Amino acid sequence: MTNRFAVILAAGQGTRMKSTLYKVLHPVCGKPMVQHVVDQVQAVNVKKLVTIIGHGADLVKSQLGEVSEYALQEEQLGTAHAVMQASSILEGKEGVTLVICGDTPLITSTTMEELLTHHENEGAKATILTAFAEDPTGYGRIIRNQKGNVEKIVEHKDASEQERTVREINTGTYCFDNQLLFDALKNVSNQNVQGEYYLPDVIEILKNQGHIVSAYQTPNFSETLGVNDRYALSQAEKTMQLRINKHHMLNGVTIIDPTNTYISAGALIGQDTVILPGTIISDETEISANCEIGPHTEISACKIGERTIIRQSVAHNSNIGNDVTIGPFAHIRPESMIHDEVKIGNFVEIKKAVFGKGSKASHLSYIGDAEVGAKVNMGCGTITVNYDGKKKYLTKIEDHVFVGCNSNLIAPVTIGKGAYIAAGSTINKDVPSKALSIARARQVNKEEYVDKLNKKE
């Protein structure tokens, strides 16, 4: 098999984005654009991947890590100039090089493979990925001769009025014979309106040298979208959203309203899970089978067991077990561990806490920095008082404890196994196992107090 290489162009700042975040790092469905591209490129088994970096170089390298080698384009002088920066890594090697822009997050490995296969079958030395555009404004045009062969690519700003009527556009993705590519790059001129070194000029150079230049027209124009501004970013987001949702639905997940359900590219969802409208599932969330999530629920970086129901709630960076019920209006904050068969009810906040099997906090409670055992009942309004203004402390509640309503547990404190806490208590000392702890003032009724008060007034 022919060696395959890839060059990803990711050096531009993206001024039209009007952002301090570099263009290729803007997320689409929770993943930076350039990461989408790299993930798809890896699927076509390239031997070497080189990312051309410039603006935001360190951030791009931090995002992609060791899956790519890098070449720095210190001054952005055009796409041909950008590819030339990879010469120290790729020049002279035998094989085919795929060149693709880092701001095309919708392109798939399937389309890349079709392009590469077409290139190899045609015996071409350069192949252009093209598409038919209803509105080709801004795109380079593919100019063909009477036989249908590619004559040249003309950038929109350099095109004549007649050439601008052409609707077959250059997507900015190419295959080249690697050795011929770097030889031709040395002959690219910047004599054009922009004064830049255009990569499409390599096509004309190779054609004039007598090499076969081909084009593969993808039927999927949406894949070729280049994101240059926030409007295009929103188009990419919508297209990716529907693509991801379709993938999950075809794998056995019910999504009631795909247009109002937002699932990140890295999420995993088990069969027969139902996702209701207004739900946002982001980051590397894993949801097991037979769950029900939503409506209007936000899940981020969580691992959720089977048959769990989460309604109108928020959960971040936590593990949630099987047969758990959460919500409505609950908040599971980071580093929480919710074991099986737990009930977290309305207006309950869990933060950095372990909640044991079968335990309940049904309403209006804050459980933070706590270890809650199995079969514990946390009464309405229970609060673990974990912060003294400088440090946070642990509340430990052992198995089978019953905490009455409106109780304050002032950490650090341990409630022993099977203990009872009387409603309205403020506990600031350890409670032994099976004890009843009452920590509240004795009730005193002042007879006829109101009448006496009224007389004074």
From TrEMBL:
GO biological process: cell morphogenesis; cell wall organization; lipid A biosynthetic process; peptidoglycan biosynthetic process; regulation of cell shape; UDP-N-acetylglucosamine biosynthetic process
Taxonomic placement: Bacteria, Bacillati, Bacillota, Bacilli, Bacillales
Region (Linker): 231-251
Keywords: Acyltransferase, Cell shape, Cell wall biogenesis/degradation, Cytoplasm, Magnesium, Metal-binding, Multifunctional enzyme, Nucleotidyltransferase, Peptidoglycan synthesis, Repeat, Transferase
Annotated spans, N-acetyltransferase: 252-457
Subcellular localization(s) per the UniProt record: Cytoplasm
UniProt-listed InterPro entries: Bifunctional_GlmU, GlmU-like, GlmU_C_LbH, Hexapep, Hexapep_transf_CS, NTP_transferase_dom, Nucleotide-diphossugar_trans, Trimer_LpxA-like_sf
Family label: In the N-terminal section; belongs to the N-acetylglucosamine-1-phosphate uridyltransferase family. In the C-terminal section; belongs to the transferase hexapeptide repeat family.
Chief location of this protein within or outside the cell: cytoplasm
Region listing for Pyrophosphorylase, in residue ranges: 1-230
Species of provenance: Litchfieldia salsa
A GO CC annotation given for this chain: cytoplasm
Keyword Hydrolase part of the UniProt annotation: no
Reaction(s) the record says it catalyses: N-acetyl-alpha-D-glucosamine 1-phosphate + UTP + H(+) = UDP-N-acetyl-alpha-D-glucosamine + diphosphate; alpha-D-glucosamine 1-phosphate + acetyl-CoA = N-acetyl-alpha-D-glucosamine 1-phosphate + CoA + H(+)
Binding-site residues, UDP-N-acetyl-alpha-D-glucosamine: 9-12, 23, 73, 78-79, 140, 155, 170, 228, 333, 351, 366, 377
Pfam families: Hexapep, NTP_transferase
Transmembrane feature ranges: none
Protein name as catalogued: Bifunctional protein GlmU
Pathway the protein contributes to: Nucleotide-sugar biosynthesis; UDP-N-acetyl-alpha-D-glucosamine biosynthesis; UDP-N-acetyl-alpha-D-glucosamine from N-acetyl-alpha-D-glucosamine 1-phosphate: step 1/1; Bacterial outer membrane biogenesis; LPS lipid A biosynthesis; Nucleotide-sugar biosynthesis; UDP-N-acetyl-alpha-D-glucosamine biosynthesis; N-acetyl-alpha-D-glucosamine 1-phosphate from alpha-D-glucosamine 6-phosphate (route II): step 2/2
